[in-house]
Amino acid sequence: MNIFRLTGDLSHLAAIIILLLKIWKSRSCAGISGKSQILFALVFTTRYLDLFTSFISLYNTCMKLIYIGCAYATVYLIYAKFRATYDGNHDSFRVEFLVVPVGGLSVLINHDFSPLEILWTFSIYLESVAILPQLFMISKTGEAETITTHYLFCLGLYRALYLFNWIWRFYFEGFFDMIAIVAGVVQTVLYCDFFYLYVTKVLKGKKLSLPA
Amino acid sequence: KEVTDGKDEL
């Protein structure tokens, strides 16, 4: 555990909590892609199956349970409790174009051809692209609420901090996981355009809106 | 350590 890893985890946690609170307080999931949230729930479910097979640490177990719990709570709020506010017409990204290739890739390129390892690999690949339905939705409507942009910033920052964590671990522990690193780079790159808009617009007090 | 062991990172 190093400072980048810890702050990365906390940034991830902050993102998840921000989204849950935004939906809960406003009693609305307008502007939020339910498809991205289903993908994240799928990511956590397939990645944290090792909860049943091995114990790493209390921190590890607690965070995994919180992430999974919050992911399903978010999906529940969007598709059940506040379903009337869900903007399904703008959430039109075809997720099968992500899930099918990612499934194929995780069977082809993995560390070990075992069910748990393939599912872990699937979750890593899927997480790297799971935000695309949300970004697609914003590009379609041309705007995002400020609180939604804070959520996206924390979510992008988390993976960027993990990149520093992997650099740290490579230098000081000789550890590296090529699958996680490549997917993490892809994931972080997908946020770059958004990071630029966040810094140039949102941090200067303007609403994030894209030119028509 | 086996790769199929539990993962430390989240």
TrEMBL record, chain A:
GO terms for biological process: protein retention in ER lumen; protein transport; vesicle-mediated transport. The chain crosses the membrane at residues 65-82, 119-138, 150-168, 174-199. Keywords: Cytoplasmic vesicle, Endoplasmic reticulum, ER-Golgi transport, Membrane, Protein transport, Receptor, Transmembrane, Transmembrane helix, Transport. It is found in: Cytoplasmic vesicle, COPI-coated vesicle membrane; Endoplasmic reticulum membrane; Golgi apparatus membrane. It is a multi-pass membrane protein. It comes from the Eukaryota. GO terms for molecular function: ER retention sequence binding. One of its GO terms (cellular component) is endoplasmic reticulum membrane. Belongs to the ERD2 family. This is ER lumen protein-retaining receptor. It comes from Pundamilia nyererei. The gene is LOC102215457.
